[in-house]
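okkk here we go again. third time trying to get the zinc ion bound version out, last two times i messed up the smiles copy paste (missing a bracket lol). double checked this time i swear
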Amino acid sequence: MSADDARKFSLDTYRNLLAELTGQGYQVVGFDAVDPASRHLVLRHDVDISLTLAVELAEAEHALGYASHYFVLVTCEQYNPATQAGRDALQRIVSLGHQIGLHFDAALECVEPLEERAASEARYLSALAGAPVSMLSFHRPAQKWIDNPASLAGLPHTYQPKYFSNIGYCSDSRGGWWRGAPLAHDAVKSGTALQLLTHPAWWIDAHRSPAERLADYLERRQQELTRDLNANVVITHEKGK
Ligand SMILES: [Zn+2]
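finally!!
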């Protein structure tokens, strides 16, 4: 695909994609209910950039009657799930019937063992969302986690064989279907289960390239940070210097 194809991502094309799949008999189900041999569609979203954009996608899915999985980072620079806006976003996503999972950055160098950190991040996120967090998705997963059946801190993860290699898997990484579009996927051609990973930031705002979407996002974020500084930090200018 080309960069121009990536411009075609929008909430409308997302809705159309789901309509096409459900029109072919696909049923949207959660990870816990997926049957590899059935036309089951698991909708997963990794929130890498903005909880605000995630809420927009969550609203659109809810309006269509679909429940999906939103995996949220607690260790990223781009958003903070513990702020008032972050908590409101998480709770809104939950109230729309979606599930919150932990998006986990295993590459951070930390003093506590990986297992303990995953458990504590999941507990923390659950408290912020006011909902259980019972699943994990690795952020930029190391090869060792791909197709690895082991759970981490008792949490199943989205790259376990039962969710990854035993069923179809399709992702919009870097803002495009660079490894093939879902409708052309072998799983869809054969009418078997598919995990569809989409990142909210690539689908909100129509007709923008990935680079344009990121530029828009950065402009909005700059405005938010400026407002926050003005509201919370009083700067006094010393005179005579
Ligand atoms: Zn990620």
